[in-house]
Amino acid sequence: MAGTNRNREAPSGGPAIILVEPQLGENIGTAARAMFNCGLTDLRLVKPRDGWPSDKAVAAASGADRVLDKARLYASA
Fold first, then answer.
1. Which secondary-structure segment (H or E) carries 68?
2. CA-to-CA distance for 15 and 12, rounded, in angstroms?
3. Which of 53, 49, 44 is nearest to 73 (CA)?
4. Which among 66, 16, 9 has a CA at the least distance from the CA of 46?
5. Extents of the domains making up the chain
6. Whole-angstrom Cα distance, residue 31 to residue 60?
7. 3-state DSSP call for residue 15?
8. Dihedrals phi, psi of 73, to nearest 5 degrees
9. I need a surface site. Which of 1, 29, 49, 55 has the fewest CB within 10 A?
10. Are 42 and 17 in contact (CB under 8 A)?
């Protein structure tokens, strides 16, 4: 069975991923899913166009909610 195992503990550490002025919540969500699949959890958002938090980001994250819950928001780069 493929997919994200929501029962396992998310690894921590690694580099921060910074999205500067992301345009769509879906882009944030898919980035969070890719991060989680690679064991990355430090997501930083700079001026998301559609605001934050985003229901569309949560839907697109497909189980990587831990990354979105810890995301930090910044007003400028």
1. helix 65-70
2. 10
3. 44
4. 16
5. 24-74
6. 9
7. coil
8. -110, 135
9. 1
10. yes
The phi, psi pair for 17, rounded to 5°, reads -105, 125
- Return the structure tokens found at 31: 């980035």
Tens digits of pLDDT across the chain (77 residues): 456 566 666 555 679 999 999 999 999 999 999 999 999 999 999 999 999 999 999 999 999 999 999 999 999 97
Structure tokens at 20: 């500067």
- State the residue for tokens 């994200």: 4
User: How many CB atoms are located within 10 Å of the residue 6 CB?
Assistant: 12
C-alpha closest to that of 43 among 75, 74, 9, 6: 74
% helix, strand, coil for the chain, step of 5:
35, 15, 50
Q: Identify the residue whose tokens are 């930083």.
A: 44
